[in-house]
Structure formats: C-alpha cells, structure tokens
Amino acid sequence: MGVIRSFMDGMKFFLRGLSWVARHPRWWLFGLVPALIVFVLYAVGLYFLGTYAGDAAEWATPFADGWSEGVRNTFRFLIGIVIFGGGLVLAAVTFAAVTLVVGEPFYEKLSEKVEESYGEVPRGHEVPLWKSIPRSIKDSLITLAYVLLFTIPLFFLGFVPVIGQTVVPVLGAMVSGFFLTVELTTLAMERRGLARKRRFAVLRANKSTALGFGVLLFLLFLIPFGAVIAMPAAVAGAAVMVRVRLTPSLPPSGAVRPGAQPPGSFPPAQPPGRFPQGQFPQGQFPPHQAPPHQAPPGQVPPHQAPPRQTPPGQVPPGAFPQGH
C-alpha cells in the first residue's frame, strides 16, 4: 500500500502544480512561450516522419522484397507504424528536456516564483546563464542516453506476441515517466546545489513518487497540445515536489547547516590527533580537552569553591581515622 500511496502522491504533485498556475494565469502564459516554440519544431519533424515512414520501412526491410505483395505491404505498413510510434514516444520523452534548455530563463523564474509562495527560496548555488545552458545540454544528453538504453530493448520486445502489446507499453511508460521527472526536477534540485548523480540518487530513493509524477505527464504529453498546456504546470509541480517531498531536510536558505558540508564536498583536513567538529565518539573527548564541567588538572571547575588550605605543620581535618 505504501508504494501505491507514494505513486498517487506523485500524481497529486502535478495537480498541485496545475492548481498553482491556475491561480497565477500570467505565469502559465509566461511558461507557454518556450513550450510553443519547441512544439512547432516537433510537429514539423513528426509530420515529415509520418510522411516518409513508409519509405523508411521499405529501406529497413530489403529482405521482404521476395515476399508476396499482400504480405510484404502489410508487414511494411506495420513497420512504418512502429517507426512513427517510436518517433512519437521519443518526442514525448525529449520534449521536456529540449523545452527546459530552450526556455531555461523562463522556467527558472517560474520555479522560483512557485517556491516563493511556499517560503524562502534556496540561494547560494546560482550559476551564470552561459554556464548553466551548456551544463543543461550535457545533462540532457546523458539522460537521453539512459532513456535509449532502456527503450531500444523495449522497442524490439514490442514485436514479441502478447508481451509486446501488454507488458512493454507499461514498462515504456514507466521508464519514460521516470526520466521525465529527472528532467523536470533539475531546476529545483540545482537550486539546492545537487549535482546530477545526487539528483538521480534522490529520485531512486523516492522511485514511486517520481513514477507517479512522470507517468501521468508522459500520458499527457502523448495528447496533441497536451505537452504545451501541461508544461508550466509540470515545472510548478516539480518545484513543489522537490521542496515538500524529495529534499525537505535541506536548509531552505541554501546555506549549509553548522557542522555539515556542502553537497558534493568533503570535510577539510584535520591536524594529526584532531577530530572534525561533532564527529568524536560519543562519551569521549579529544586529547588535551577536558569533558564538560571537568576542569584540567590543577584548576578548579567554575562555580566550585577552592579546597581549604591547611597551614604548614597541621594535619587536614579528616585525614586520619577517628581515634588515631
């Protein structure tokens, strides 16, 4: 039940993002601009893919030239559908990544506004635009490589009877949905100083929530104009999910807590015999350091009277048993 509940929570985060942009229509329109630009480019590409899918199928199946005309045409028609379907799925998976790269200034501002409505915006990890765009492209290409690593085997499994029509579409939606979440949570996680490997680790630790959020978006992105309309809400929902569920323990100001190290860094080197602050075994104390409320040898602890001094030649009271 916990897995199902987390999956449903992921879907609810998108609905929370949708609710936020519905209350702020100006920001929804603001987020539509890059999504519309990328949508037009993708629509043109899919148009040409659909137009020449038959030619691509014929080029890819020279072994069918000797078949009977009816079987050959039917087979190549099905291959053409698979090619176009693969292009459609690839477009749905990469749409968010390409749109985020094209519209990074737009969505960065939108994501910040969403976080402002929940409190203080994390600071201290800002990167100049001329550095952030190449980094975003690099991260998106790496994510795309992971997507292809999973989707290419699934593509061939799609030709297996029964499994290809039942199990494979579900696995494809889950893989695509997870990596959609990877892309959409990048802005909010980078704002907290989380590099790519740590972002993947956070999402793997919250796999059910990430899948619930991403699978719903993947299905919406397959609907014509669905990706354009849903993109601002997806960015808003991802910002809420990162803040509330994925990284709630990080300091909201982006500062590092006392005794903690910034993400991705290592503790400073300590001199021999010294321990980092807060890391000495419980109940023990570093060398040459007195435990609390215990003064070093020869000194009197604070708030404690010094021992009574005995004049020379006299025996301190109580030094010998009574009667001696």
Polypeptide structure, described:
By secondary structure, this protein is an all-alpha fold. The chain has one domain (2-246). Helix content is 64%, strand content 0%. It has helices spanning 2-23, 25-51, 53-60, 69-102, 104-116, 129-157, 163-184, 186-190, 196-205, 207-221, 226-246. The longest helix is centred in the N-terminal third of the chain and has 34 residues, at 69-102. It is elongated and about 120 Å long. Residues 260-274, 288-324 have a biased composition (Pro residues). InterPro entries: CysZ-like, CysZ/EI24. This is CysZ protein. Residues 275-287 have a biased composition (Low complexity).
What are the main properties of this structure?
elongated, 324 residues, 11 helices, mainly alpha
Sum this structure up briefly.
The chain has helices spanning 2-23, 25-51, 53-60, 69-102, 104-116, 129-157, 163-184, 186-190, 196-205, 207-221, 226-246. With 324 residues, it is mainly alpha-helical.
The radius of gyration is 31 Å
Largest sheet: none
Structural class: mainly alpha
What proportion strand?
under 5%
Number of domains: 1
Rounded average pLDDT:
79
**Gross morphology:** elongated
Distance between the termini: 80 Å
SSE pattern: HHHHHHHHHHH
